[in-house]
């Protein structure tokens, strides 16, 4: 019996012959591609969505936030469910939920229908995404085969994020904004068939662990309530009941989440992990960085189309410098980490982002691609690529190997939650600056204020990186 078959039999419940490697890799990579693509593909379609469904500026940001909040809030739960109930079963469940929600979103006739569909999409993605990586690690034996498989999975995920702007622009321009969601349906259905027929079932050995569903519901609803309160504060004032009630309710839900985590035997997020300096500091920084980066994609898309009057296709291709710079920074970071202090690289990356955001804050109604977009795009995105890898490495250092998966999920959760809250805060900043004006000059002033405030976020992140992240362990010195 091959090592692959032996591994399947010892870690799971399916005694069938090992599935072909191509089918495992195709299913896992296709699932991850859909999840990552959907984070970015909607941005370019936002102005078209608003025009067709009559969404307000607040409603438009919830098209993005509904996905981000449920994705982040249920990500850790999804990973644990895959181990408990079987990776194949949870993969199929998440993919089916994601595909059906995409269909519902594409057919939406009312704003609330689209927001609900996006929230369900995020839930499906939270169930699907962790299962894709676990399927690879349990179906490919440790060594070069697994390394190559994970490398392909990582590249496909990066490609999904990179392709989002262009795919969204092409679909919106030549078909309709609805196809940025409907395109998931035939792809999802095909992957479902391949996975159902070809994948073998596996689940974690050992005693059964409970799912902390209350914890996931509390943290997601708590952050959503805070976001809703922040939105209402811009419209009704901080002292109004419409702002105070959700803000206080969100805070109470998050306190309840902490209590549940402290009392439950198998918490979603063990609070003891936060006593590890690398974990607490790394996730705090990730929260702040996420708040700026999510907003960059959102407001740059609105600026290009609402102020510079780019078509969706033109805007999609205008995002190419962002994409290429992030890829370049991500490729350079591991090589630089071998030569310089990872913490220093984090700070340099954050300062590069801050410089790009500050430059972009000078945008105007008469901006040009080369004069207003290209330079800031390179600085913002290159800095993000340089800082994310060492920051993720720092945030997952100093923990036991048995907790590495949980901490990695926590890092992703912090980034998504930071993005959702940051977008809410910065959208309120833009609305406060713009008021009821709809001219190109007023919109540019509002978007520019967003980038100025986000510059402050990134400077705070740089300070946190410098003073809160632990120093890297000293490198061993070779002696002859």
What report would you give on this structure?
Helix 2 packs antiparallel against helix 10 (184-198) and helix 4 (57-73) packs parallel to helix 7. The chain has 19 helices and no strands. It has helices at residues 3-11, 21-40, 46-53, 57-73, 75-85, 87-106, 111-139, 144-174, 179-182, 184-198, 213-236, 241-263, 277-307, 312-318, 320-337, 342-360, 369-395, 404-434, 440-468. The longest helix has 31 residues, at 144-174. It is 78% helix and 0% strand. The protein has 480 residues and is an all-alpha fold.
Task: Please provide the count of β strands.
Answer: 0
Strand content: under 5%
Low-confidence stretches: 1-14, 474-480
Q: What is the distance, rounded to the nearest whole angstrom, between the alpha carbons of the first and last residues? A: 46 Å
Based on CA inertia axes, which overall geometry fits? globular
Instruction: Decide which structural class fits the backbone.
Output: mainly alpha
Whole-number mean pLDDT: 79
Radius of gyration: 22 Å
H and E order: HHHHHHHHHHHHHHHHHHH
Percent helix, as a range, is over 70%
Main sheet attributes: strand count, strand direction, barrel closure: none
Q: What's the helix count?
A: 19
Topology:
Elements: H1 3-11, H2 21-40, H3 46-53, H4 57-73, H5 75-85, H6 87-106, H7 111-139, H8 144-174, H9 179-182, H10 184-198, H11 213-236, H12 241-263, H13 277-307, H14 312-318, H15 320-337, H16 342-360, H17 369-395, H18 404-434, H19 440-468
Summary tags:
globular; mainly alpha; 0% strand; 480 residues; disordered C terminus; single chain
